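Quarterly update, task 2.4: iron/sulfur cluster-bound model.
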Amino acid sequence: MDYTREKTPPIREERLGACMAFGGSCCDISRQSKKGCLFNNNRKFSQSQGCQLTLSLAILNTIRDSVIIVHSPIGCGANLVAQAGVSKGFQKLRDPNAFGLRWINTNLDEVDVINGGEEKLRSAILYADREYRPSAIIVMNSCVPALIGDDIDTLIEELQKQVSARIVPVHCEGFKTKIQATAYDAVYHGILRTLVGVGEDEEEPIIIDELEELKRKYRISRTVNVLNVSSMSRPDEENLVKLLSALDLNVRILPCYAHPDDFADSFEAALNVSICATHDDYFVEHMKSKYQIPFILRTIPIGIANTNKWLLDIAGFFGIEEQARKLIDSEMRELNIALAPYREFLKGKTAFLGGGEIRIITTAELLHSLGMEILGLRGFHFDRYGEGLLEELMEEIPESERAIINIGTGQPFEQANLLEKYQPDVFVGHPGGNGWANKQGIPVFPLFGQAYEYMGYVGVYEVARRLTRILKNTSYSRNLVKHARLPYRQDWYSEDPFAYINQDAAL
Ligand code: SF4
């Protein structure tokens, strides 16, 4: 595929036929997904919806030495306020001289809606370049300029000749899609068009040192781009680098917390390895069609089985499976001994999971490997990548076919109904929805955290250790439920949790 000739990427409803509403069993969704008609599902009532501009910021506010310009009324991206210190702290883990988040809003008002907002954007870009001298200026287009017809791409083309920073347009207007993960495509679209391969058209230097050139080619042949996600921690990255270094591979980590210059030669790699298909399929497909770099997109290295698959897939590409198996055996010997006391405590405990499709399915496998029972899953959306992973989960753990699955971004009323009915010992969820579960008296364990380890074999141990700690003392949620309540009427809890999902078209 190649959408990068276009100014804007397609939305995921069109590109992947992604599903944003479903309620039923894992077996049902798998069957219906294979029929290819899940994308027809919708809701008669929607309580809340995610905006792709907000999710785009999750990646973009990590990019070092850049300035973000949110071209919008003042409210869009206001959640950046909460990210300011966090972003700086995590950037500094990668580069002690990092500046942290620098952010400008064009503050479009009623007059701009009539007269257009291009002049404000022009001033903001010139100001950002003059004041901060960043390596990149990232322009995020929101609903209002898209609706009034601001031509940000022509303006950026003109200004690019006047400023030294690379200007990266990101078309992430919230109104365009109900699949919030379209944000990842919007971000990668901007990066692919403006940062990847910058300078590759320049004249090739004359090679005078053939040995150096051979060394460079060898290094590229052993280099993998590991595509991280902003929700993972620096220790998670270090764990994965350690595993791949043990297989004698060089690792380049992109896109989160990278410097804009890091993308320029990102095509000098033997393989692109995704951490999460929801996040990366747009990027790796384009890198394959433009630079012929193969990719691995199957799973995220969370849990024992999925870390094994992730490693063996990479090793298979380089023909070093035997080396990878030895590494896995030695890691497993140590891990199984360390997990023994936690497995004893967690055996038979029940869990309900909510979050991104890839993360919840793999975390379900992790919890099952600790002896826990999975009662249900809530995914933000569902597409072919979730379908493949769910298929593998049901093959490996046949009882998961009966587990309930609900698809929907937001919709906390559906989550509340499900948790009231299932009463799991723990809700493992996205931090955005965990407060709701806590108010129902259910202990929560965050599905991810930028300060904790979740990935690789160390991640399995850390999840087991922290989960045990949370479940040994549940007094916080037991006390909270005495003083807080959710805003729903009691009779909602006796109704069908999927009463407002219209999925007849898929049956
Ligand atoms: S939906 Fe549109 S107006 Fe609302 S925050 Fe997102 S970009 Fe801004």
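Highlight for this quarter: The mean pLDDT is 94.
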